[in-house]
Specification:
Strand content: 15-25%
Helix content: 25-40%
CATH superfamily of the largest domain: Vaccinia Virus protein VP39
CATH class of the largest domain: Alpha Beta
Distance between the termini: 62 Å
Largest sheet: 7 strands, mixed
Number of domains: 2
CATH architecture of the largest domain: 3-Layer(aba) Sandwich
């Protein structure tokens, strides 16, 4: 019998430690251990990897990661109420779980992780997108992580994997797909969580590419994409006018019609435009 089978049911843990989910912390607990096991397995072979988990709560996914053989799990939890429940899991898996209390947006967990590193988390809804953007925009690439397996609101997940021509296509899709392979691997209804959120959720798997898919200066690409999608209903010759006085000529030089709109432009074309707008060194 594995250690996860010897631990009490999550509902009992929540009741014993008074861990009612707090909306202010973006908490929605996933208590079905069959689902948490599926998420852990989606992250691939964990036996030779350190795992970073953000927002473990009472530890449902934490238990699954350890049961699936994770070499080491670093769980970052802001809510001090959850620490005793997590300590019980640490005791069941000696030396394999480190618990760090703090805000994931303010602390640096890298000193506690040994490559290869995978990030697996049911992210708190209120910080999920910001954390993803940070992981996708490090100062150097490749990043510290080799894969991200992350739970988001379904709308956010669809924005990450969106293709040109769709309403969901925008800055997040370009940011994710420029440097990673991104796929939705699981969809979950509100009833899978306690308390049930108002929206459905989805798990997105991202695998870091060794280099960006197309060459471009990250800062220039970011400015181009931000300007284009901040005024996505405008033609590009209008929305990008502030980037260069001869923007129409530069658009045409990379095969983009000046009358096109942002959602029509592929990642490859955005990267080509970023190169056309990068000053020579």
């Amino acid at each position: 019998m594995s250690a996860i089978d010897d631990l009490p049911p999550l509902r009992e843990v929540i009741a014993r430690h008074g861990l009612a989910a707090r909306r202010a912390l973006g908490q929605n607990f996933l208590l079905d251990l069959n689902l948490t096991a599926r998420i852990a397995r989606t992250a691939g072979d964990l036996t030779g990897a350190d795992i970073l988990e953000i927002g473990p709560g009472p530890g449902g996914l934490t238990r699954a990661l350890l049961a699936e053989g994770a070499r080491h799990v670093l769980a970052v939890e802001k809510d001090a109420r959850c620490l005793p429940a997590l300590e019980e899991i640490a005791a069941a898996y000696p030396g394999r779980l480190t618990i760090m209390q703090g805000d994931a947006l303010e602390i640096d967990p890298l000193a506690h992780l040994t490559p290869p590193v995978k990030v697996v988390a049911n992210l708190p809804y209120n910080v999920g997108t910001e954390l993803l953007v940070r992981w996708l925009t490090p100062p150097r690439w490749p990043p510290f992580w080799e894969s991200l397996t992350l739970m988001f609101q379904r709308e956010v997940a669809e924005r990450i994997v969106a293709r040109p021509g769709s309403k969901a296509y925008g800055r997040l899709a370009i940011l994710a797909q420029w440097r990673a392979e991104a796929h939705i691997v699981m969809r979950l209804p509100p009833g899978a969580f306690t308390p049930p959120p108002k929206v459905s959720s989805a798990v997105v798997a991202l695998t870091a590419l060794p280099a960006p898919r197309y060459p471009a200066d990250p800062a220039v690409l970011s400015r181009v994409v931000a300007a284009a999608f901040n005024q996505r209903r405008k033609m590009l010759r209008a929305s990008l006018r502030g980037l260069a006085p001869d923007i129409e000529a530069r658009l045409e030089s990379v095969g983009i019609a000046p009358t096109a709109r942002a959602e029509e432009i592929s990642l490859e074309r955005f990267c080509a435009l970023a190169r056309a707008l990068t000053p020579p060194r």
